[in-house]
Amino acid sequence: MKNILIENILELISKLNLLELSDLINKIEQKFNLKIDNNIEEIKKNKFDIFLKEVGDKKINLIKVIKEITNLSLKESKDLVEKKNSLIKSNLSKEQCDEIVKKINNVGGKVEIK
C-alpha cells in the first residue's frame, strides 16, 4: 500500500515544472522544519582529511607512526613520509583527527586538516 502511495506522489511530482518543484521543496522544508543545504554542509563538516606538511627531525619515528595509523607496509609508509603534502588518511571524524594529529606532533611532524 505504501509503495503505491509513494509511486503516485512521485508521478505527480514528475509533472511539475521547475518553479513548481522549487516551491514544493521550500514548502516541504518549512512543513517538516528541514533545510537540505544545511544538513549536507553539516555532514561534510563532520568528515576531514589529514595531510602531512612537515616531517620534522624524527623521520624514523614518524614513519613508524604513519605505519601504525595507515596500516601500510614500512616501505609504503616511508614513501608517504617522503612525498610532499601527502594524504595520510581521509574521511575521518574530528575525534579521529585529533588523535592522529597528537601522535604525529609527538614525533615532530606537522599536519594540515582539510
From TrEMBL:
Pfam families: Ribosomal_L12, Ribosomal_L12_N
A single BP term in Gene Ontology: translation
A Gene Ontology cellular-component term: cytosolic large ribosomal subunit
Stretches assigned to the Large ribosomal subunit protein bL12 oligomerization domain: 6-34
Name assigned to this protein: Large ribosomal subunit protein bL12
Annotated keywords: Ribonucleoprotein, Ribosomal protein
One Gene Ontology MF term: mRNA binding
Gene3D superfamilies, sorted: 3.30.1390.10, Single helix bin (1.20.5.710)
CDD domains: Ribosomal_L7_L12
InterPro entries referenced in this protein's UniProt entry, alphabetically: Ribosomal_bL12, Ribosomal_bL12_C, Ribosomal_bL12_C/ClpS-like, Ribosomal_bL12_oligo, Ribosomal_bL12_oligo_N_sf
Self-association state and partner proteins as the record states: Homodimer. Part of the ribosomal stalk of the 50S ribosomal subunit. Forms a multimeric L10(L12)X complex, where L10 forms an elongated spine to which 2 to 4 L12 dimers bind in a sequential fashion. Binds GTP-bound translation factors.
Boundaries of every Large ribosomal subunit protein bL12 C-terminal domain copy: 48-114
Lineage: superkingdom: Bacteria
Record bears the keyword Ribosomal protein: yes
Family: Belongs to the bacterial ribosomal protein bL12 family.
UniProt function note: Forms part of the ribosomal stalk which helps the ribosome interact with GTP-bound translation factors. Is thus essential for accurate translation.
